[in-house]
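Students often ask why inverse folding is considered easier than folding. One informal answer: many sequences map to the same fold, so there is more than one right answer. In these notes we will look at a single instance of the problem. The structure comes first.
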């Protein structure tokens, strides 16, 4: 059974823990590194200009949070795809396909299937919600407690997600530029974090949406170009590509059978099932995805946007599978694993191999385009995460839990900008401290918390008439505690060579992702809490299910 960690479905970058995590810089010439640096600076400047010109003109809450819902379904679909396609989809899944074959195919399929789950929830979610997750919870329970619970769940998802993105981005960027010291990696992490804060403060939802749209177009065009080069190398013969990938992986026929990533044992099968369950259910209800859905003009537009996004992401994941096969066939498992045990350098290695390598003009341009695509992907995704976390702090906690909805729009927009600075600074500090540690498990934790704490409360809020305040609080807090507690006692934190603390062993929970246990338990807690809460009289002013159902079906009252 392999000891590799499960891949992170919705937002990991190359392992910050491995000093060689982005070693492709070693194959770059000085001219290519210069080209990468200049391209990075151009993209940074253009993205800042986009945020400045597209940012909100007035201090209006709806403009800052949802761009006044002026994006068309196609524009929102592109932005939704941008929020969803993170560096893990580009780098992580490519690496798992390259090293593990079938298990990588399953992960790519689960990534698309998760958007299918979001498609089922998009219309009622948009009808019920206004800006944040707390607005959806508020239709079933009044007061500050449900909004505080929503804020806790949002931060429990967003903070680890941000840390693993920023720490990996700092390492990858520094190494691509030929900088190998810890100080250089921490400096790159801080600079990327500062850019993230600037984008969010200046652009709000409208600015970050435009950055997401540009990112999707650029990344899609880049990976398609690499995939075309791979298929052309094998004379457009899929069978020849599969055979070469099986040979290059060093696994032979086992490459096209399940089990290489998480093993053939019973525990390995449970790990595999738990990972797929967590990806499908957790990635569908990440808080920044919910906020993106809430930016649609109405429920019908939200469904159309999500449907378009499913098609885009499905095609993207198909291309990613081709890239993983190409990396296995043209680079080989030994080189890929030497660069990064989880294979997250596979795409960069492949980009440095096709079209004659980086020594040629075409190869250098293609490699630079791939590096820039990864860079802009990180900036766009972390900006969306930061906006969502800041919105829940300002809107759910400050404006409603503390000031009980009596805060003016101008003061709330000022509060959300300060929240961006606060959350961004915290994320930067933690990401810099994480340099040198294997924190990849944090992205799995973030998705597990979303599946365990957000999904049960969301489904119950939208579809179960007997759901009440007690059930909501039990499911949210229970899901958070179970996910965090079980993950802390799993092999991803201790007891394995790739753990956060490899020299310690307190991993009594055998599975690498807690979703198989925490998701059913959170649903059970929501049911039990609602049954217990029904025995007590409802607080004065508690919303009725009839009113909530009317809003969920029609969207009336969500503005």
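Output (designed amino acids):
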């Amino acid at each position: 059974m392999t000891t590799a960690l499960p891949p992170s479905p919705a937002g990991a970058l190359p392992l910050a823990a491995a000093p060689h995590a982005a070693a492709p810089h070693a194959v770059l010439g000085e001219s290519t590194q210069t080209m990468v640096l200049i391209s990075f600076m151009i993209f940074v400047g253009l993205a800042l200009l986009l945020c400045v010109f597209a940012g909100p003109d007035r201090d209006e809450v709806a403009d800052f949070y949802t761009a006044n819902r002026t994006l068309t379904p196609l524009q929102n679909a592109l932005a939704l795809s941008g929020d969803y396609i993170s560096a893990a989809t580009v780098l992580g899944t490519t690496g798992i396909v390259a090293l593990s074959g079938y298990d990588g195919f399953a992960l790519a399929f689960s990534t698309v299937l998760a958007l299918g789950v979001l498609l089922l929830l998009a219309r009622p979610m948009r009808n019920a919600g206004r800006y944040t997750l707390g607005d959806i919870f508020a239709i079933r329970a009044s007061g500050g407690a449900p909004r505080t619970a929503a804020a806790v769940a949002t931060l429990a998802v967003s903070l680890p997600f941000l840390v693993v993105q920023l720490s990996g981005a700092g390492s990858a960027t520094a190494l691509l530029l030929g900088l190998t010291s810890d100080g250089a990696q921490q400096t790159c992490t801080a600079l990327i974090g500062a850019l993230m804060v600037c984008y969010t403060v200046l652009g709000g939802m409208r600015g970050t949406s435009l950055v997401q749209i540009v990112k999707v177009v650029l990344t899609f065009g880049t990976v398609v170009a690499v995939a075309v080069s791979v298929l052309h190398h094998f004379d457009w013969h899929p069978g020849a590509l599969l055979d070469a990938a099986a040979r290059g992986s060093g696994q032979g026929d086992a490459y096209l059978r399940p089990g290489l990533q998480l093993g053939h044992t019973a525990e390995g099968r449970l790990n595999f099932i738990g990972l797929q369950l967590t990806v499908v259910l957790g990635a569908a209800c990440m808080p920044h995805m919910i906020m993106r859905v809430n930016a649609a003009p109405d429920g019908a537009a939200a469904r159309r946007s999500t449907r378009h996004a499913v098609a885009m992401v499905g095609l993207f994941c198909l291309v990613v599978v081709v890239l993983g096969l190409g990396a296995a066939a043209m680079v080989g498992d030994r080189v890929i694993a030497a660069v990064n045990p989880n294979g997250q350098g596979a795409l960069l290695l492949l980009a440095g191999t096709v079209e004659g390598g980086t020594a040629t003009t075409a190869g250098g341009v293609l490699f630079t385009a791939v590096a820039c695509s990864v860079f802009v992907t990180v900036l766009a995704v972390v900006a969306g995460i930061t906006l969502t976390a800041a919105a829940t702090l300002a809107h759910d906690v400050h404006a409603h839990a503390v000031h009980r909805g009596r805060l003016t729009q101008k003061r709330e927009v000022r509060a959300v900008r300060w929240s961006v600075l606060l959350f961004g600074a915290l994320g930067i500090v933690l990401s810099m401290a994480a340099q040198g540690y294997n924190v990849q498990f944090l992205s799995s934790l973030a998705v597990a918390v979303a599946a365990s704490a957000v999904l049960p409360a969301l489904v119950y809020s939208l579809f179960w008439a007997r759901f009440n305040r007690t059930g909501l609080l039990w499911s949210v807090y229970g899901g958070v505690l179970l996910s965090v507690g079980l993950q802390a006692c799993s092999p991803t934190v201790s007891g394995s060579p790739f753990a956060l603390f490899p020299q310690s062993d307190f991993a009594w929970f055998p599975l690498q992702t807690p979703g198989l246990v925490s998701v059913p338990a959170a649903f059970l807690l929501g049911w039990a809490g609602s049954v217990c809460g029904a025995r007590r009289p409802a607080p004065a002013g508690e919303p009725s299910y009839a009113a909530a159902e009317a809003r969920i079906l029609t969207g009336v009252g969500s503005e």
